[in-house]
Write a structure and sequence with these properties.
This is AsnC family transcriptional regulator. Pfam families: AsnC_trans_reg (PF01037), HTH_24 (PF13412), HTH_AsnC-type (PF13404). By secondary structure, the protein is of the alpha+beta class. Helices cover about 35% and strands about 25% of the residues. Strands 2-4-3-10-7-9-8-5 form an 8-stranded antiparallel β-barrel, surrounded by 4 helices. The N and C termini lie far apart (about 55 Å).
Length: about 325
């Protein structure tokens, strides 16, 4: 007899609370989350494991490259027929990409790249252009983020009340706090946390050869300076958002700030930034269906003063999910 497929996991209120709690503090102990949510530690641990399977939940440590003086680029690549999947897979395996997505039409890839060590010209203008699968490439430097980074989209689902948010939120980054000079130990910690933001202290100790107190002190220093924060990777379908779109907004220069600030407040927006190029603002959005996307573009975007035109494309698939590493 054939075993029937498992029933799809329907997210309930506790699932949504856990997702938002992890967005607020990706390394919060299950015991702390349980106390705030009024459930047992075992319940939180069990829900966490289940969400890993149902929505692809992963907590990832992210480095704010902007604070380290490194630039971030959005690169749109047009590919030869049947080449987009192969190119997207190759880009996803690179350590300097944080987001890779396939756009509608099947011949375009959009990725976020953080070149290291002044390699922008060589990577963006030479290596990618010489790739046989690429027919054209457009690179836009992120000038100013309006939404994204430490403030992820899960903060907009309002699953937690104000008191719960306050109990779980990590302390704000102090703007005047000195930035740490990263050494080999810091880089090792960051590399491990990029793969698993909740990696155990014992594993961090073993990889660095440092004591528990030293590892904790290093983590506190990286987090308090803003160099390290945590983001939650997940699929959007079970959260009722099956349509993901990329929007390029041509905006009057005098309206860049007001348009960006408005976009940041929209519940549909998971990332928005001022970028170089003709389209001065880029936004990534999520919607229940294409009708809702139409309404958002015609009414939500259409109501913003200073927006002259909008180009839109749908994401067919996310290959690598973190949209943006630099912070505020």
């Amino acid at each position: 007899m054939t075993t029937p497929p498992p029933e799809p996991h329907v997210l309930d209120a506790l699932d949504l609370q856990l997702l938002q709690a992890l967005q607020l503090d990706g390394r919060a102990p299950f015991s702390r989350i349980a106390t705030v949510l009024g459930v047992s530690d075992q319940t939180v641990a069990r829900r966490f494991r289940r969400l890993r399977g149902s929505v692809g939940l992963r907590v990832l440590g992210v480095t704010d490259e902007a604070l380290l003086g490194r630039s971030s680029w959005l690169v749109r690549l047009r590919c030869a027929p049947d080449g987009a999947e192969q190119l997207a897979g190759a880009l996803a395996r690179r350590t300097d990409t944080s987001y890779v997505g396939l756009l509608s039409g099947g011949t375009e890839v959009l990725c976020s790249i953080k070149p290291r060590g002044g390699q922008e010209d060589e990577l963006l203008l030479a290596r990618l252009q010489r790739t046989p699968l690429v027919t054209s490439a457009t690179a836009q430097c992120v000038l100013h983020p309006f939404y994204g980074g430490p403030v992820g989209w899960l903060n907009k689902i309002n699953a937690l009340d104000a008191d719960q948010e306050a109990a779980l939120r990590t302390p704000s980054v102090e703007p005047s706090a000195p930035l740490p000079v990263l050494d080999e130990v810091d880089e090792t910690l960051l590399a491990l946390l990029r793969r698993d933001g909740r990696v155990a202290l014992t594993e961090l100790q073993a990889a660095t050869g440092q004591s528990e107190s030293v590892v904790k002190r290093r983590l506190d220093r990286l987090r308090s300076s803003g160099v390290l924060y945590f983001d939650v990777q997940h699929t959007h379908e079970l959260l009722g958002r099956s349509v993901m779109a990329a929007l390029w907004l041509t905006v009057a220069p005098s309206a860049l700030a007001s348009v960006g600030e408005s976009l940041a407040a929209h519940p549909e927006v998971r990332f928005a930034a001022a970028v170089t190029g003709v389209a001065g603002v880029f936004a990534a959005t999520v919607h229940r269906d294409t009708r809702e996307l139409y309404t958002y573009v015609s009414e939500g975007i259409g109501a913003l003063s200073g927006v002259r035109s909008v180009e839109s494309a749908l994401f067919v698939r996310q290959v690598k999910q973190l949209m943006y590493e630099p912070g505020r």
